Amino acid sequence: MAAFDVMMGTGAAAAAAGVLVLRLSWARARRSAGLNAVGWLLILAGISAGMVAAGAWGVAVVAIIAMGTAAVLLGHAALTSPPGRSRPSERRAHMLPGKGEPLHLGQRVLTFLLAVPGAMLSALLVALAARAGAGAADWHEANGNALALFLLPTLWGVFAFLLLMLRRRGQLLLLALPAAASAAILWLGPQA
């Protein structure tokens, strides 16, 4: 247990020191390749020590220490740096219409309904169909569940992004095709 504590402590200290060295290097007028290399090597040594001490758990602990150190340094820099001299942009991204223009609430509500619950439902159907297909392919149940749990948020994000980027006609098609194909697979079974 003592060797574990020493190894984890050394790894955490090395990672934190690596972040400090990188901050020191990046704060200079000209960045130092030598200091950058030392900083990254310290972080690598810290992660390696965490891996030796406790495997993936050790890597996670050391990474949290390194990220916490970086967050403290960034917070300090944000609080102590002088404000910028440039004025904020006056440009608006069509968030609200100008005075006297219609609000287009129907379009806004429809866009929300397509991009959030619509994309989620389509992604859910695809994930469930993939889960059924994994079961038909004799995958272990846990692997099929992991596949579905991976696909749902990933596809939901992809569908929502694409829905917001496509023109109106392509939006419904983007949701309808994968949802219909997946619903058919679920209805008929993956063997059909």
TrEMBL record:
The chain crosses the membrane at residues 6-26, 33-53, 59-79, 109-134, 146-165, 172-189. It comes from the Bacteria. The keyword Transmembrane applies. The keyword Membrane applies. Keywords: Membrane, Transmembrane, Transmembrane helix. This is Uncharacterized protein. It comes from Sphingobium ummariense RL-3.
